[in-house]
């Protein structure tokens, strides 16, 4: 086994500052109207010797923050410093591990690992030696001449790690590095990485990782920043003092996970007032961005909630575990239920409402009617579409009639997604039809 | 510390004994080099040498002619590649350049290739007065124009669609622009580029044949090559010689395919960005042979290492100015003013160019003439439409039948590709003889020549589509007893449509091009002439009448542009949006 200069992790309160970011704001302009604020007034520091996690749901801007720190993306405003100097482009001493691995398919494992060294002009012999060291360290011996497409997902991500480590960065950035892997593989990689880290065998000083998996964050990080969505802000900062190796079954571990679930579903008092009963979905009224959730998932979750052991009320981490879903997948469904008054969400617990319980007991046609009723009553956009169709003599309206109106409130992609969700729900509730060919809403109902 | 590692030790274990593959590789390499030197020497000869050694119909001369023709093809491919890298990269990297370069490329693509030839031959000859090189360059340029545009488009498209994660990886590892280009951008665009080069090449044979016997006005040049051999055979009414030329061409294309493109395609397979291995990888006996050689590999290793070092260099270009100066220049460059100046410049130049064209054409030509040429354009368009429709009716059912039978498809597919590459103009004389003997109407019977070479694109694309048709859909169709017309309409035609459109676009583009040589055909002293804009351009070229050449070429380009925009592009979008099977 090769040994790389040891960097024993020190308590994070002592280490020198690596990253110092303050007041970071990222806005995507979208023409004339309201801009899309991805990050709002975010500050963070990273010291040598710590593993920091950015935890949040998709759309909370945590990946954008990672890219801002790495210098790949320039923030709209705010200060980012890397080792005391302002960041102007990709900085030296940083390297990145990608969710999708981002390996060059035309290079072998060895060549992929060497790429980062070529960029800084390391001589060939030295390059080869260091690449092989990194490959050995990460457990890829014997795969040097393989092409990425010959490897399994887990092996590919190991190449991603080796490539990031070989340049001996001070800070390794990881963008959801385990989320494209299956459960078993991800767990193996996590523990391997943490083992190397606590043994001080990684040639790095600190790790910053983005994740939406709460348990993963608690398992690996010394410090977790929890992001709220729309716009992305740091909602809370939690320090995890548990010693490694951490066990998921440890009651303290469970308590921390529960606590984070609670924080992630909790709303500030101001938000509660503004969005009473509308869930945590961004926007209000017609300008609400809706997640494209299939009606099967909606009714499936209601059935799961109504059935034993839950009987109508469930603890979110528990439910996520039973359904083998991640926060990212579960939250939008729960919020859709909340929006339509089929369920209520409070402090990490989800409870079926009266209507939700009734829905579960009904047959297919009656379910559709109840769904349509709630859709019209609680989703303003559904009401608008129906009203426009009723008013027009032709009972037809083009897709763009609504997407353009939505774009006053949100980005093009969100508008498209929201309307797609509405089309699916409207079709299910038989409120209106949609012809993809002509891109028109209509009132026709093939019977 | 001693290192023990398989990757480091791999080099030590080898023996030095050459093997059979080495012998083969050496033969091929040195044979090729000698031939190249021989072919290249001739191009530097003075023009008069062409008159001293006129093209002869002796079949023994054909190998040499074939070699000269092949060298032209090679030169054109190299030129096209250089152009592709420069133009494509510029268009993809600079937003301002993109504004101008992309539409220009679109128009260039629509201009008939032989139209370029009419313009450029005189220019190239005056660049190298009295040397064969000038004429050679004109011919090479003609081939270049048949290849460069779609290669460039393919490269540009690839550059614009580089996966975001790979892009971020190169940036976060701080690769320089040079390293990025060779490590990411070129490899990523490789599969598309190789495929397009191959397609361009098969079109190229047609134009190399057409461009070797050039005559513009009084200037008549015949470059030694298969094309001029055929031209002479036509003049001397020697049908047997045409037969020999066909054989020579068959051999050349076969060799080209086996020695150049098969290995290239098999090699380029590793550049496909697919995470999972799908389908059988393309193979080439030559590439496998080269990879198995021992000595050969060792001899080539330094060369390979040198080539491999190119992408590793950290070349980056930055002017030796201070940070502040750079910032000022940058902000000026991206300001609103710079944008306005650039736009004004583009519009001024475009306006002036338009004025030049109108002024040039108007010196000699009147409005009625322009209208007449548009009428001729309609005639040619009718031909293209009818012939593509006929080819569709014939080849779609046949293609589907073949494609559904994998054993057949395996054999027919290379044959169809081969036929598409074969320059149809070589066999025109046979058709012309038939028309003359039987006294047929040239307006109708010359037309099929236009699709003679291009119909195969429809066939092999349909075969590919039918072979790729998912098995479960086939089984679903048969368990639900969907048969007859319903089967075609609901099952098969939608399934192959995207493939068909791809083939038909290529076929129709090729047919427009072919009309310039197909609407006027001769056999000895007999010249058959059909009415159409192709014949108009051909006649104007023969007469050296530049205003008419410009008019004819411009009109044909306009027709092609509208044909593409109004018919093919909507169909292509529709196929992409609604009928994709993945």
UniProtKB/TrEMBL annotation, chain A:
<dbReference type="InterPro" id="IPR017871">
    <property type="entry name" value="ABC_transporter-like_CS"/>
</dbReference>
<dbReference type="GO" id="GO:0005524">
    <property type="term" value="F:ATP binding"/>
</dbReference>
<dbReference type="Pfam" id="PF09821">
    <property type="entry name" value="AAA_assoc_C"/>
</dbReference>
<dbReference type="Pfam" id="PF00005">
    <property type="entry name" value="ABC_tran"/>
</dbReference>
<comment type="similarity">
    <text>Belongs to the ABC transporter superfamily.</text>
</comment>
<dbReference type="InterPro" id="IPR027417">
    <property type="entry name" value="P-loop_NTPase"/>
</dbReference>
<dbReference type="GO" id="GO:0016887">
    <property type="term" value="F:ATP hydrolysis activity"/>
</dbReference>
<feature type="domain" description="ABC transporter">
    <location>
        <begin position="19"/>
        <end position="254"/>
    </location>
</feature>
<dbReference type="InterPro" id="IPR018632">
    <property type="entry name" value="AAA-associated_dom_C"/>
</dbReference>
<keyword id="KW-0067">ATP-binding</keyword>
<keyword id="KW-0547">Nucleotide-binding</keyword>
<dbReference type="InterPro" id="IPR003439">
    <property type="entry name" value="ABC_transporter-like_ATP-bd"/>
</dbReference>
<keyword id="KW-0813">Transport</keyword>
<protein>
    <submittedName>
        <fullName>Nitrate/sulfonate/bicarbonate ABC transporter ATP-binding protein</fullName>
    </submittedName>
</protein>
<dbReference type="InterPro" id="IPR003593">
    <property type="entry name" value="AAA+_ATPase"/>
</dbReference>
<dbReference type="InterPro" id="IPR050166">
    <property type="entry name" value="ABC_transporter_ATP-bind"/>
</dbReference>
From TrEMBL, chain B:
<dbReference type="InterPro" id="IPR000515">
    <property type="entry name" value="MetI-like"/>
</dbReference>
<feature type="transmembrane region" description="Helical">
    <location>
        <begin position="416"/>
        <end position="438"/>
    </location>
</feature>
<protein>
    <submittedName>
        <fullName>ABC transporter permease subunit</fullName>
    </submittedName>
</protein>
<feature type="transmembrane region" description="Helical">
    <location>
        <begin position="20"/>
        <end position="38"/>
    </location>
</feature>
<feature type="transmembrane region" description="Helical">
    <location>
        <begin position="444"/>
        <end position="470"/>
    </location>
</feature>
<dbReference type="GO" id="GO:0055085">
    <property type="term" value="P:transmembrane transport"/>
</dbReference>
<feature type="domain" description="ABC transmembrane type-1">
    <location>
        <begin position="66"/>
        <end position="265"/>
    </location>
</feature>
<feature type="transmembrane region" description="Helical">
    <location>
        <begin position="193"/>
        <end position="217"/>
    </location>
</feature>
<feature type="transmembrane region" description="Helical">
    <location>
        <begin position="549"/>
        <end position="568"/>
    </location>
</feature>
<dbReference type="GO" id="GO:0005886">
    <property type="term" value="C:plasma membrane"/>
</dbReference>
<comment type="similarity">
    <text>Belongs to the binding-protein-dependent transport system permease family.</text>
</comment>
<feature type="transmembrane region" description="Helical">
    <location>
        <begin position="237"/>
        <end position="256"/>
    </location>
</feature>
<keyword id="KW-0812">Transmembrane</keyword>
<feature type="domain" description="ABC transmembrane type-1">
    <location>
        <begin position="381"/>
        <end position="567"/>
    </location>
</feature>
<keyword id="KW-0813">Transport</keyword>
<feature type="transmembrane region" description="Helical">
    <location>
        <begin position="341"/>
        <end position="362"/>
    </location>
</feature>
<dbReference type="Pfam" id="PF00528">
    <property type="entry name" value="BPD_transp_1"/>
</dbReference>
<feature type="transmembrane region" description="Helical">
    <location>
        <begin position="104"/>
        <end position="125"/>
    </location>
</feature>
<dbReference type="InterPro" id="IPR035906">
    <property type="entry name" value="MetI-like_sf"/>
</dbReference>
<feature type="transmembrane region" description="Helical">
    <location>
        <begin position="71"/>
        <end position="92"/>
    </location>
</feature>
<feature type="transmembrane region" description="Helical">
    <location>
        <begin position="137"/>
        <end position="156"/>
    </location>
</feature>
<feature type="transmembrane region" description="Helical">
    <location>
        <begin position="491"/>
        <end position="512"/>
    </location>
</feature>
């Amino acid at each position: 086994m090769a040994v790389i200069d040891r960097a024993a992790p020190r308590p994070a309160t002592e280490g020198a500052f690596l990253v110092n970011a303050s007041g970071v704001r990222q806005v995507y302009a979208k023409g004339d109207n309201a801009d899309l604020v991805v990050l709002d007034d975010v500050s963070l520091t990273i010291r040598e010797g710590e593993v920091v996690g950015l935890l949040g749901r998709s759309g909370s801007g945590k990946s954008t923050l990672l890219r801002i720190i790495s210098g790949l993306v320039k923030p709209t405003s705010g200060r980012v410093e890397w080792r005391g100097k302002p960041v102007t482009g990709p900085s030296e001493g940083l390297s990145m591990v990608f969710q999708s691995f981002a390996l060059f398919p035309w290079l072998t494992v060895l060549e992929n690992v060497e790429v980062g060294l070529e960029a800084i002009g390391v001589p060939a012999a030295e390059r080869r030696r260091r690449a092989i060291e990194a490959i050995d360290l990460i457990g890829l011996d014997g795969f040097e001449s393989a092409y990425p497409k010959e490897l399994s997902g887990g092996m590919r991500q190991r190449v991603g790690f080796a490539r990031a480590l070989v340049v001996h960065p001070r800070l390794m950035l990881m963008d959801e590095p385990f989320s494209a892997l299956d459960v078993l593989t991800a767990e193996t990689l996590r523990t391997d990485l943490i083992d190397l880290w606590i043994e001080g065998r990684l040639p790095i000083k600190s790790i910053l990782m983005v994740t939406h998996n709460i348990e993963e964050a608690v398992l690996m990080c010394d410090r977790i920043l929890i992001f709220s969505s729309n716009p992305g802000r740091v909602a809370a900062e939690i320090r995890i003092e548990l010693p490694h190796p951490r066990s998921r079954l440890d009651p303290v571990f469970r308590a921390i996970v529960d606590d984070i679930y609670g924080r992630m579903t909790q709303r500030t008092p101001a938000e509660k007032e503004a969005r009473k009963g509308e869930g945590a979905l961004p926007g209000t009224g017609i300008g609400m961005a809706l997640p494209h959730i299939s009606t099967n998932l909606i009714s499936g979750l209601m059935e799961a909630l109504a059935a034993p052991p839950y009987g109508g009320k469930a603890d979110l981490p528990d439910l996520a575990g039973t359904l083998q879903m991640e926060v990212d997948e579960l939250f939008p469904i729960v919020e859709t239920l909340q929006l339509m008054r089929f369920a209520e969400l409070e402090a990490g617990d989800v409870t079926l409402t009266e209507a939700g319980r009734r829905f579960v007991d009904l047959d297919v046609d009656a379910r559709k009617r109840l769904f349509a009723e709630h859709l019209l009553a609680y989703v303003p956009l559904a009401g608008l579409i129906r009203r426009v169709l009723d008013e027009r003599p032709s009972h037809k309206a083009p897709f763009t009639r609504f997407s353009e109106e939505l774009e006053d409130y949100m980005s093009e992609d969100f508008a498209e997604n929201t309307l797609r969700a509405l089309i699916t729900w409207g079709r299910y509730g038989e409120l209106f039809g949609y012809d993809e060919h002509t891109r028109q809403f209509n009132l026709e109902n093939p019977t | 510390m001693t290192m023990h590692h398989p990757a480091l030790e791999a080099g030590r274990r080898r023996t030095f004994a050459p093997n059979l593959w080495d012998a083969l590789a050496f033969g091929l390499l040195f044979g090729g080099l000698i031939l190249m030197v021989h072919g290249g020497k001739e191009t530097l000869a003075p023009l008069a040498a062409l008159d001293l050694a006129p093209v002869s119909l002796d079949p023994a001369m054909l190998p040499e002619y074939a070699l000269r023709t092949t060298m032209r093809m090679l030169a054109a491919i190299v030129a096209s590649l250089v152009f592709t890298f420069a133009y494509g990269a510029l268009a993809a990297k600079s937003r301002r350049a993109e504004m101008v370069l992309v539409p220009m490329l679109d128009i260039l693509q629509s201009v008939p290739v032989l139209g370029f030839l009419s313009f450029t031959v005189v220019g190239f000859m005056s660049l190298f007065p009295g040397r064969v090189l000038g004429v050679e360059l004109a011919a090479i340029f003609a081939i270049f124009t048949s290849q460069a545009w779609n290669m460039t488009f393919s490269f540009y498209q690839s550059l614009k669609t580089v996966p975001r994660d790979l892009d971020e990886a190169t940036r976060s590892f701080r690769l320089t622009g040079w390293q990025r280009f060779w490590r990411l951008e070129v490899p990523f665009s490789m599969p598309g580029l190789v495929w397009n080069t191959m397609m361009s090449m098969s079109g190229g044979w047609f134009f190399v044949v057409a461009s070797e016997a050039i005559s513009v006005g009084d200037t008549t040049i015949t470059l030694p090559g298969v094309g001029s051999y055929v031209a002479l055979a036509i003049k001397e009414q020697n049908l047997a010689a045409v037969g020999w030329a066909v054989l020579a061409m068959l051999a050349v294309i076969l060799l080209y395919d086996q020695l150049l493109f098969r290995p290239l395609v098999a090699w380029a397979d590793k550049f496909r960005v697919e995470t999972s291995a799908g389908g059988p990888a393309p193979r080439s006996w030559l590439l496998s042979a080269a990879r198995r050689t021992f000595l050969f590999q060792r001899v080539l290793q330094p060369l390979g290492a040198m080539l491999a070092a190119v992408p590793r260099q950290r070349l980056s270009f930055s002017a030796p100015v201070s940070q502040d100066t750079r910032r000022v220049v940058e902000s000026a460059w991206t300001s609103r003013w710079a944008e306005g100046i650039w736009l004004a410049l583009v519009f001024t130049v475009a306006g002036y160019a338009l004025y030049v064209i109108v002024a040039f054409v108007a010196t000699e030509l009147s409005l009625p003439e322009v209208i007449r040429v548009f009428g001729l354009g309609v005639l040619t368009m009718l031909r293209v439409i009818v012939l593509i429709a006929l080819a569709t009716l014939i080849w779609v059912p046949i293609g589907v039948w073949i494609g559904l039978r994998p054993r057949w498809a395996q054999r027919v597919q290379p044959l169809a590709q081969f036929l598409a590459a074969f320059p149809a103009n070589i066999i025109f004389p046979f058709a012309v003889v038939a028309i003359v003997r039987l006294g047929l109407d040239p307006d109708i019977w010359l037309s099929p020549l236009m699709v003679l070479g291009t119909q195969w694109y429809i066939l092999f694309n349909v075969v590919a589509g039918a072979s790729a048709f998912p098995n479960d859909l086939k089984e679903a169709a048969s368990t639900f007893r969907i048969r007859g017309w319903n089967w075609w309409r609901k099952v098969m035609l939608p399934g192959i449509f995207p493939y068909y459109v791809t083939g038909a676009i290529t076929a129709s583009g090729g047919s427009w091009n072919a009309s310039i040589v197909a609407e006027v055909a001769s056999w000895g002293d007999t010249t058959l002439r059909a009415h159409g804009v192709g014949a108009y351009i051909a006649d104007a070229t023969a007469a050296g009448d530049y205003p008419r050449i410009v008019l004819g070429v411009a009109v044909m380009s306009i027709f092609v542009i509208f044909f593409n925009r109004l018919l093919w592009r909507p169909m292509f979008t529709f196929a992409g949006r609604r009928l994709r099977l993945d």
